[in-house]
Predict the 3D structure of the following.
Amino acid sequence: MRKLVSVQKIKNIQDIQGADKIQQAKVLGYHVVIKKGEFNDGDLVVYCETDTILPKDNPLFAFLEEKPIKTRKMRGVVAQGICFPVNILENYQQYKEGDIVTDLVNAKKYEPDFNNINNVEGDFPNWIPKTDETRVQDLEGVLKKYKNTECVITEKLDGSSITFWLDDNDELHVCSRNRIVDNNSCFYKIASQYKEGLKNIPRNIIIQGELVGTKIQSNKYKLNCKEIFAFNVRGFGDYFSFKQSVGLLKLANIPTVPILNNSYYLSDDVDELVQMSKGQSTLGNTPKEGIVIRPKRDIYVNNNYSFADGRLSFKVINPDFLLKYHL
């Protein structure tokens, strides 16, 4: 789960060539653009991540018109997020670096809701972690700690999350990102194509993946059908290892998300990782959304970072993708 709005320190403030009124800086691992002279290195700021929607009834945020904060490019600098002075918070002296203030400013996350569908049976099961990945820019300390860990890099696909499994009675259960769906849903119909394959593996093994293709997120890959690409395999207790997961998916005849590097030794340089996220998708003639990096062996990290089950895994979003699709 993302912080959205938090108190952070601003650093590395630099002038932008040819710009008189703005400067560039970093917050966590994000590049931001700020008003010239508004902040000094080390100042605490209220940092609002991309996808944050701030209430227009607050005069401080009215200029945003309750539209989501998006990635922008200003004078050649890619900017992700917006900074406000920490004194916009009541009793601001009590806040420290890292404090989450999302609820305090009544912010919410923007989510294009493909999952706003009619064929639902209930809410997403609370015993299955959702598939949100932490962004690399939030993980500078983690990267330093686990530098040179052997990892797998997969392509992050732009679609809609799907979760499905067969129970002991061979009944298929299917979920979108937020709902359990019934057998009239397109999610269910696509997952049912893999029902026979699921019988080749033990029951109650949960498959999580991305549904991409026609009528999903504008079908950026120009596919002529809907397809599922799996990225997580778990039991009712925990995830399987990468090697076990690939083996189980092969037995079930379920394709994995594209594997880009099966033996990558982790860098602690956020900008280097962002550069790695760039390039064309393996599925079509469009920039890839980004990459997901997971250690080959499970590493459990302090869950202040909101990793699913505490297991280290994170995404690196391609800024070219964000800029092209105005995200």
